Amino acid sequence: MRAPGFWWDRNSLAAKALQPIGAAYGALTRQRLQKPGRKVDIPIVCIGNPTVGGGGKTPTAIATAALLVQAGARPVFLTRGYGGRHAGPMRVDPAYHRARDVGDEPLLLARAYPTIMSRKRLDGGLHAARVAGADFVVMDDGFQNPSLVKDFSVLVLDAGRGIGNGLVFPAGPLRSPLIPQLRLAHALLVIGDGSAADNVIAAADRVGLPVFRGRLEPSAEMVEELQGKPVLAFAGIADPEKFFGTLRQHGIEPRVTHAFGDHHRFTKAEAEKLLAEAKEKKLTLVTTQKDFVRLDGDGPLAALRKATATLPVRLVFDDPEEFLRLAVEKIKRAD
Description:
Blueprint: H1 13-33, E1 44-48, H2 57-70, E2 75-79, E3 90-91, H3 99-102, H4 104-110, E4 115-117, H5 121-128, E5 136-140, E6 152-158, H6 178-184, E7 187-191, H7 198-206, E8 211-218, H8 220-226, E9 231-235, H9 240-249, E10 254-259, H10 268-281, E11 284-287, H11 289-293, H12 300-307, E12 308-310, E13 313-317, H13 320-334
Parallel strand pairs: 1-5, 1-6, 2-4, 2-5, 6-7, 7-8, 9-10, 9-11, 11-12
Antiparallel strand pairs: 3-4, 8-13
């Protein structure tokens, strides 16, 4: 899904027309957020966002798990597996499963720590709690799902995108009214630069929600390898322009860009077109890690995967010590 332009314009006719539906949907989701969840045998850390689409949840989940590992914890990830054909619950094996099986995020998570994929959060949480050796769960998304008790919940927000027009889906990008979401969270993490999230930071301050800052850092090795090369960049994520901007910020100038919808499943025809254009214009193909794991298949898709470079990114906290202190405090309080 590509975010419509009116999500960033509160006064647009489309946003105004859809506002009554958004208000009704917001009332339902707000009520749903209040439902009691089930407590599993080990603590749950939830990394979500207040809006539809991406905001850096998966890199944040991996970085949060890594911080807790430094404190001696043993994580297991829980993810829904958007776009995969299996319902789960099941443990993801990146050597065996493909994106068409389990979705793209589970494959990225499973490269770091054990990962359970389940469309039903409760079933997945119960399954994750039984993974041998694990002593806490990190949920990638699922903040608005009330089926599980979350012991430490973090809302992630892109500083450059914010919450758009501040309206609830479908009139805007919010999954539920903002303030009730902030009151249920334990921390707000704002990623990157920009002022679009300033109003959310102010709202978080008003409700006493701790605010942290972070940034996505690309692999220095890949930046060095791609600098100076003319590239064709393509991405099927929530905000492809953010990826293209990251390339430019690090001295990698895309001569051509192609944006696709979030979780886009590439076709053989699209693969052939990208390969032909890169060959004709003598460009190096580059994409995101999430897109790369979706390039599974034979023929043109296999050729595109072989020809494409990726630019891995990692989430870096500005104050990892304080973030870890708060996370450990909440987790211990839950025991």
